[in-house]
Structure formats: C-alpha cells, structure tokens
Amino acid sequence: LLAAPFYILAGEIMNRGGITDRLIKLTIVLVGRIKGGTAYANVMSSIVFAGISGTAIADTAALGKVFIHGMEKEGYRKEFAAAVTVASALIGPIIPPSVIMLIYAAVANISVIQLFIAGVLPGIILAFACALVIAWKGRSENFPISQIKVARREVPGLARDGILVVSIPLFIVVGTLSGAFTPSEAGGVAVIYAIFLGLFVFRNLDLKGLVEAFTNSVRMTASLFLIIACASIASYVLVISGTSSALISVGSMFRGSPEAFMVSVIVFVILIGFFIESGVLVLVFAPLLIPIANSLGINPYHFAMVFLLAGNLSLITPPVGIVLFVACRIGNIKVGTLFREVLPFFLAELAVVFLIAYFPGISLWLIRLVGLQ
Asked: What is the pLDDT of residue 32?
C-alpha cells in the first residue's frame, strides 16, 4: 500500500504538466479522421491515461473536462459524450499501474507485479468493447469527423510525447519484473520522472502546479486510507460475527463447479456494487471470497481480475457510482439520463467480465509468457 500515494502523485503531476492535451491531440491524429473519431480518441486516451493515473475518477475528471464539451461542440449529444468518457474510464483501474490492484494484492497477499501484468489484456478488451458500442451507436447516429486540426509539424513532437508517457507504466512493470526495484520504489521513481517531464520536457509544470499536485494527492491518499481503515473494521466485524464461516459453507456447494462459483461471485459483486464503492468491495468482501476460490482451485490472479472487473462496474451504477456523478457534474447532466446512455456500455463491459471468467487464459497468458507461472 505504500506505493499507492506515489502513483496518485505521479498521475497528478503528469496531469498538471500538460500531458492531457498532448494525449488528446495524439489520439486525434491517429483516429480523428474517421466517422466518430473523437469518440474513439476518447477511449484511446483512456488507455494511455490509465498508465498515468491508475484510477477511474482521475481519468474521468481529466479527460471529461476536455472530451465532454469538446465532443458536444463537434455535434455529438452531450449525454453520449459523457457516456463514452464514463465507460472508458473503467479501463483506468485495470491497465497498470492501478491503485485498486495495489489494495487487492495487499489484501490477497499476492504479487502486485503479476496482477499488473494480468490486467493488460483485459484492459485492452474493455477498450475494444467500448469501441464496438460506439460503432453500433454510429449506425443510428450521424457521428461527425473530428474538427480538431493538428499541424503536420506537430506530429513528431506529439509522437515523442506519447512515447515518453507510455514509457511510465512500461518502466514500472519492466523494472519491477526485472528486480531492479520494488513496486513502492517504482512509484517513487515514477514521481521523479513525472516532475522531470513536466519541468524540463513539456515545460508546462510550474511551482504552483506542483504544489497543487501534492495537495490533491494528499487529499486523495487521506481519503483512500480512511476508506481502508473503515473497511478493515467492517471486515473484522464480518469475520467475528461468523459471516466468513457461513460464506465458506455456502462455497462448499460449488465444489466441482468453479464456473458456477465465478458466476455467483460476478452477480453478487455487481448487486452489492450498486450500494458499495469498488475499493470497499475489495477490502470487505475479497478476503471472504478468496479462500473459497482457492479451495476450488481457481487461479488467484484469474479470480482477482474477475472480481476487480465486476467491482469496477460499481463506479458507473447509481446510487453510489462516483464516476457517474463526476461526469454528471462536468456535463451538467441528470444521473438517470446519463445512466440510460451508459447502459449499452455497461452491458458490453459486463460481457467482458463473463468472457474473462470463462477463459482464464486471457488474464494469465502474459504472466505465463514472461515465465512467472
């Protein structure tokens, strides 16, 4: 958990260092000249920004301010623009580095670097699912071609900036995997690298921005650890009340059928997620369900990805879907109106959860490829 504040701070520094605008311009260069290009650029930006922020809230706050109003000006419905932003923000907690993965790894006592690697393919599939929904919606709505103009002379600089930004998550994963440093040390190095880029490469970061980044990070970290403290108490109460024993007894019903157990976990997590935020889900319910999954022979990293993907959906479902509320505030949209627009994306991402659940190789292939299993 010591690494979490570093990743939060690195994301804040990069955001204030002008990287968001550069990312958006780069994605517009890549996909902006096709119909619905700005919507696809929104999703693509979330993939890259996920490697900076590690949280869905930061993704929504940073990209939403640009894309929701920007897409509306281009002719998209404001509600659809917000829905794309909200749905693609769920890539943030899955593509490494991820704050929620750090919490899960600490709770489950598993390798955070293996969990990071396990999230790469599911995160890309989530993005593909969002793109499919955009394409489907585009059949009935006349999506425009992006009107954002990028001068040809800017393209090499934007490509360089993109490489520098993408190198952050690669640096963290490769460095930790090689044993050069621990995840916590990688977070510290990421902060130094982010400051270097902001001050000397992008030159958009000043002392005021740096102070704001540190202040925001302290607030977010304090909120995170307060949630952890309260959830730990709730988890302890559930254990001493016998709830964990009751769940283990229920889990024995699934012996010989791990698939049925996985389906029940997905349904349970999604239903509870309507009322509890994803971080609390991990802290309170993961410790109760992990022993059952282990007893059924389910790979711990496979179970982790299914649990996290299902828990992620709580971020976009009312009445406590915090990402939904952030987008509503940015776009001045009613929650019910936005959720109706988000629903096709929700169903597509739910299908991805079941896909990952039934095909363990999707989340485990990269781990095995690098020889960690």
From this structure: 66
Cβ(44)–Cβ(51) below 8 Å: no
CA distance 61 to 64: 5
Closest CA relative to residue 101, chosen from 358, 313, 288, 301: 301
Determine contact, residues 238/284, Cβ cutoff 8 Å. yes
Count of alpha carbons within 13 angstroms of residue 145, beta-carbon side: 5
pLDDT attached to residue 262:
92
Q: Write out the residue range of the structural domain in which residue 223 sits.
A: 3-369
| pLDDT score recorded for residue 26 | 78
How does DSSP assign 130-196, residue by residue?
HHHHHHHHHTTS-PPPP-----GGGHHHHHHHHHHHHHHHHHHHHHHHTTSS-HHHHHHHHHHHHHH
Which pLDDT score is estimated for 133?
95
Distance, CA of 112 to chain centre = 15
Whats the size of the chain, residue-wise? Answer: 373
- Give which of 3, 15, 25 is closest to 52, Cα–Cα: 15
Number of domains in the chain: 1
The Cα-based distances of 215 to 5, 126, 191, 197 in angstroms read 12, 32, 14, 19
Please give the pLDDT value at position 57. 80
Query: What stretches in the chain show pLDDT beneath 50?
Result: none
